[in-house]
Design brief:
By secondary structure, the chain is an alpha/beta fold. It folds into 2 domains: about 140 residues, 3-Layer(aba) Sandwich (Rossmann fold), CATH 3.40.50.720; about 190 residues, Rossmann fold (3-Layer(aba) Sandwich). α1 runs parallel beside α13. The protein is elongated, with a radius of gyration of 22 Å.
Length: about 350
């Protein structure tokens, strides 16, 4: 009998002891090309299809240049599960997976989520305290110039001044952690998330507002949403025009939440003061991106917000392997992203094990 195969479509130096859990129950492992993650080639999709065709499971991190498309999913007739090491699943066609009865699992681990929250806080402080500009001034022999005046974040009761307003777009685990980190700074927090329960706004000490209100009132707009048809390019020309003049944009979510050309124009015009971005429409960031020409008005980071010693992807790998083992034994893991697929999946695979 042929061993069930799991394709690791975006390998990231998985520790041997983690993979041994799959091999010990009779799973054979195959590996995708590392080029699939970073090099966009016309033949990528066909290569993924060929590699995944006989697989019962797909597992990996992020594969932007060779996503798990409908064609890939349809070609893998035995496929039960796509298990991600990461929080994001925008490299998987969720609609197709759900139609086909395939579970997609993700890994919203503390290491990933809270690492992103800490990076968000770093970005806010770096931009409002002009860390880059002050460093460049000293290196150039300049000292305490008026342009180096920065923003005081918090309320000052003795002086009767209120703190700045920080707008959180999305109020999931990352945004809630950002709100916790902001608490000692005594800023005003507003948040927009039509799907979040009321208690989350209370926990964040955030005023619930609609998106347009958030854009008009926030001094800092920080994105914490997954990429869906609803959130794709939710900040474009019209939304940027609604923003308060001098606002700062933070994006540690997904690149295609923001139309980069529109953002670059708004910064160049002086309407938006600046932006700190860990994610981009195309990754790696193209050399001809207009963002590169904006100097210290834009802080750029290589999609590494959760890339921290002792964390990074390992906790997500552990979770993905456990999800894979559960699904291959005919059970439903605890971290299914497309939960609406579960009844259909149980009809196809429930209780049927393909491993020892």
């Amino acid at each position: 009998m042929t061993k069930p195969n799991v394709l690791i479509f975006a390998p990231r130096d998985e520790p041997a002891e983690i993979l041994a859990q799959l091999e010990s129950v009779g799973v054979s492992l195959t590996y995708g090309e590392k080029d699939w993650q970073w090099v966009r080639k016309p033949e990528n999709e066909d290569q993924v299809i060929a590699a995944a065709r006989e697989s019962v499971g797909l597992m990996g991190s992020m594969v932007r240049c060779a996503p798990i498309t409908r064609r890939v999913l349809e070609s893998a007739q035995r496929l039960r599960i796509v298990a991600k090491y990461t929080v994001g699943v925008d490299d998987v066609d969720i609609e197709a997976a759900t139609e086909l009865g395939i579970m997609v699992c993700h890994a919203p681990t503390e290491a990933n989520c809270y690492g992103v929250a800490e990076t968000t806080m770093t970005f806010i402080l770096a931009m409002l305290k002009k860390v880059q500009e002050r460093d460049a001034a000293v290196r150039a022999g300049r000292w305490r110039e008026p342009s180096l005046m920065t923003t005081f974040l918090g309320a000052r009761v003795s002086e009767g001044t209120s703190g700045i307003t920080i707008g959180l777009v999305g109020l999931g685990r990352i945004a809630l952690r950002v709100a916790q980190l902001l608490a000692p700074w005594r800023v005003r927090i507003i948040a927009c998330d039509p799907y979040a329960e009321p208690w989350k706004f209370q926990l964040a000490n955030a005023q619930r507002v609609d998106y347009e209100t958030l854009l008009r009132e926030a001094d800092v707009v920080s994105f914490h949403v997954v990429l869906t048809n609803e959130t794709r390019f939710m900040m474009d020309e019209a939304e940027l025009a609604l923003c308060k003049k001098g606002a700062t944009i933070i994006n540690t979510a997904r690149g295609k939440v923001i139309r980069e050309e529109a953002l670059a124009r708004s910064i160049a015009s002086g309407h938006i003061a600046g932006a700190a971005l860990d994610v981009f429409e195309d990754e790696p960031l193209p050399m001809d991106s207009p963002l590169r020409a904006l100097g210290t008005k834009v802080l750029l980071s290589p999609h590494a917000a959760s890339y921290n010693a002792g964390g990074e992807l390992r906790p997500g790998m552990v979770w993905a392997v456990q999800s894979m083992l559960t699904a291959l034994r005919g059970g439903v893991p605890d971290n299914v992203y497309n939960k609406q697929v579960i009844p259909r999946w149980l009809e196809r695979f429930g209780g049927a094990s393909v491993i020892d």
